[in-house]
Amino acid sequence: MEFTVGQIAEVLRGAVEGDASQRIDRLAKIEEARAGSLAFLSNLKYEHHLYTTGASAVIVSRTLELRHPVSTALIRVDDPYTSFTTLLEFYQQATRTGKRGVEEPAYMAASSTIGDNHYRAAFSYIGENCTIGNDVVIFPHVFIGDRCKIGDGTILYAGAKVYAETVIGARCTIHAGAVVGSDGFGFAPQPDGSYRTIPQIGNVVLEDNVSIGANATIDCATMGATLIREGAKIDNLVQIAHNVEIGRHTVVAAQSGISGSTKIGDFCVLAGQTGLAGHLTLANRTTVTAQSGVGKSIKEEGVLLQGSPAFALRDSLRANAVFRHLPDLERRISQLERGANPPEKS
Amino acid sequence: MEFTVGQIAEVLRGAVEGDASQRIDRLAKIEEARAGSLAFLSNLKYEHHLYTTGASAVIVSRTLELRHPVSTALIRVDDPYTSFTTLLEFYQQATRTGKRGVEEPAYMAASSTIGDNHYRAAFSYIGENCTIGNDVVIFPHVFIGDRCKIGDGTILYAGAKVYAETVIGARCTIHAGAVVGSDGFGFAPQPDGSYRTIPQIGNVVLEDNVSIGANATIDCATMGATLIREGAKIDNLVQIAHNVEIGRHTVVAAQSGISGSTKIGDFCVLAGQTGLAGHLTLANRTTVTAQSGVGKSIKEEGVLLQGSPAFALRDSLRANAVFRHLPDLERRISQLERGANPPEKS
Amino acid sequence: MEFTVGQIAEVLRGAVEGDASQRIDRLAKIEEARAGSLAFLSNLKYEHHLYTTGASAVIVSRTLELRHPVSTALIRVDDPYTSFTTLLEFYQQATRTGKRGVEEPAYMAASSTIGDNHYRAAFSYIGENCTIGNDVVIFPHVFIGDRCKIGDGTILYAGAKVYAETVIGARCTIHAGAVVGSDGFGFAPQPDGSYRTIPQIGNVVLEDNVSIGANATIDCATMGATLIREGAKIDNLVQIAHNVEIGRHTVVAAQSGISGSTKIGDFCVLAGQTGLAGHLTLANRTTVTAQSGVGKSIKEEGVLLQGSPAFALRDSLRANAVFRHLPDLERRISQLERGANPPEKS
After folding, report:
1. Residue A202 and residue B248: Cα distance in Å, rounded?
2. Both ends of chain A: CA-CA distance in Å?
3. Chain center to CA of A147
4. Residue contact C121–B125, C-beta within 8 A
5. How far apart are CA A68 and CA A54, in angstroms?
6. pLDDT recorded at residue C341
7. Which of A211, A239, A246, A255 to mutate to test binding with chain C, by most C CBs within 10 Å of its CB?
């Protein structure tokens, strides 16, 4: 796949500065780009790379004022980041040959149905009474249990496991090894200290455009549904317990864990390795910084939280700043004490 | 499946208040229940839902005194929670059609044996010289390595992976994607800074009634056995390293990690995202709160730990309470210092 | 498999003290060893076990001076640990019958090639245009996507998943359920608060002798490569985000997470459950203690870090020591205040 700088500029409705006839055969980061590469500059923090890059062409803003001469061609556009993302999408569509058809041996129970234009890989498994839409892509070793529903255009990568009764919307992505619908961790303590397993008869519902990361785990509800709303993005190795609700367009970064029955609002961001206790409610647009642990509900929208246990980010930053010189603080107190109560023989 | 309130009360040996002829077709949480639903009230914290619930009937304690009129029927029993769990179990048995038989293609080496009344799903794999009991349920994509032993009534969900030599007791549950018996993380540093892999020749032993969560990982012992004792419950994404021992009826919540050779007693509770250093011993009934990190052995039974590094919960709560206003503390010290050593020209 | 103490001593070029004719049929830890077992003593912290062990023979240092009589035979060598590791390797080679050949049904696209002396298990899957070396071992339910390259002697355990375009070196070990090459977590926020998925067109490159733990996840690069250099050891349930680089012979312990574009040097050690923010650089030989969270780049080599947020281990230990008695500190301040500003009516 090879295009000229001019051809690409035309697609992006951009203006070329420099040699428009140069040939581009790959996309690259500006700091790693070599001849034949097209890069982009969006964040001006990285502007210095523009003057040293080996790229044949760089997509930049129409308003960028050069501070030094450049040896690369420029394609000037309104929004370099969006233009570049468009090219990435184009590249991906061109190279990820859309897999279609059925590879044998694949297993699908006779009572299940699947729409047009699908891919069912070798060793994929679809249980009884499933209803699966059009344009669904099912990679090898995917397991879909009985009575599941899966919407149009959803893709399940290798080894994704979907327990019985799960409902998955349209255009969802389930990455490799993710588990959707495992039993919630429900055990009733008995008088002798042992535990009785509480049956988990609920399910998991993923709305449209949800993404579930590799090896993430989403437990079914004890009763009712564990619910991931439209557009939510769940990263790798995240744990979502029974009866949790994740709001629309909320992002949960890798290795975070959300305990049972907690409800997270829309447009929230949980950074990596965060933990949330059970039965909490987090208002819309709550942000939790990495490794924080939230033990209380948040009612006000837009709050930033940090720490374990977490409190307001601003206060947490200040407390941490003092924490680092606690030994100093103690020394100062001791000195004050010596001043207030001088040793008898001084 | 539909029963009357009266029929259900009879099964539970409960007393009906209200219309016993109403039809019930589902179980639900009291706050989500609608007509046709049966709910329960055990924790009086949620009593207010009783007066507004849409449930057709609610299971309550014989001793509950109503503070307002109710529009739902009541089934009065001795222990609402246990009664409801019994109904959940009944429901689950009725709906999870017991899978039996062999779906093709399934793989089992000729040298292995499996008992009566089992399910071997399509794409399940059983290696050489395995001995597998009666009533074992093996979902698709389960891998069982050579020379494994698995007891009666154990269920392995989709994609569970059991390395060679593993021993699994009766009535265990291995959830989807769990890995049992992977090599311990053992590497001997060499003079040039590289690492030599130390062969891991031990195995994993799970006693009876053990539950292993989705995508959890349990490493085999370097020598001897990594041991999970009777009734222990291990949640999703937990890491258990080589030569660890987990005591009877101990609970390890999601994303916790236990380092090599640590021994945890009986009836312990590790909350979510906890970490334990290696070569520790934790006494029976130790509790570790969420996100805590334990670096020292605990000899006394019944201790509660918090923090990273963890210490006694009571002390940790107090220290954290002060931590939040550390900047205040520093201000107070500065003020004292100004008092004790006033600026020369004030 | 049974050898005499004398035969083993000969292999190790060691000297026997005691009965060289005793028969050894297993390797064991010194504290767990029984008759017929061979153990070793390297760390003198465990010397007391030498005088009570049930082992038939123990490998010890030539220079060890006994403080009590022993009832076990001794094999004296220069380096007991290395000698014992050699025996473990020998034992493992003898017992892990090298699997070879193809079990049916296995899937390999006609456009792919694989070298001599390989094992392709039942239900293993190899996509289009892959190039796979000699002596490669592929367990059941392994998925290898299109256009992958895998070097000689690499082993992929059950259910390992390798996305398209991945490059894996020679003598690598990919443990069960590990995911290599999943999409990076890249989403561009849109004006309405939803997210647009940024195509991830890069790949993952593992150099030689890399080990990836069970259920670990390694995301592909947005562009370019996520790179794990020679000899690096990645433990179970680790998350490595897009465009990360891990240096040579660096060790990352279980459940650690490394955010996008962070570069870690050679010979580093990240203990369990650590987290690293994105776009950082860590110098060679950096050590991060368990559960720590690193938010800043480290330029100096050999630094030890602790805490969340992490700073120098020595300072962190001191600050934590004071943290535990913060309530005390506050009391002392209050007392000083009362001294400096005594209550009016005292």
Report:
1. 29
2. 86
3. 27
4. yes
5. 15
6. 56
7. A255
